[in-house]
Design brief:
It contains eight helices and eight strands. It is α/β, with parallel strands linked by helices. About 25% of the residues are buried.
Amino acid sequence: MSKIEDDKSDHCIAFILERLQIHQQRWKNESLWTPPLFVGVNGCQGSGKTTLVLLLALILSRPPHRLPTTVLSIDDFYLPHELQARLAASNPDNPLVQHRGQPSTHDLTFALSIFASLRDGKEIQIPSYDKSAFGGQGERTSQNEWKVVNGLGEERIRIVILEGWCVGFRALEAQELRKKWEEAVIQRKSGKYQERLGWNRFQDVEFVNEALREYDALTEYGSTFNPAYKASD
């Protein structure tokens, strides 16, 4: 087994601790209870997000920091299989929502309820998602498999890390979206195009972009967002 080279955690830990200090000062005179620091990590598939955040949680939770930390993935909030199938069926000509992955395929109401409970220091179960279920279409795991945090007698979570490829993304304005799409189509027709945007209909891209606006409510929880592919810069 090849050794994993850790060239990011030192930078990220220092960054998170700095943000935590600012966060605590901000809440010092506001309440007896300081909500946890919410940190977002995004990056492309295969960039090492999951490995990084699990390592960060381990380091932060152990001495000398002793900061109870929990990790969530945006993937854990995918729609249940039945709702994902319903979304695909109601948009049969849009290839972007035939499978999980794009904005609109996550259960934001559920995600926001989990985040609110973490913010308030309540006992909560952290969901998980099985990508292998239904022949690879995926399904949320049984609730009895979910990890409990902020349980009776436990120290409450101090840091919440959310990782995912689209964590922290914001929707584009209509004019900018149209411009980027038209430029992509021109490049595709030139025969030297290797991206995906220009192969999709504008209305399909617009559907996902509009769905992304609803993710702002989740993004606003983030005290800071850290791209995994820039963490070592």
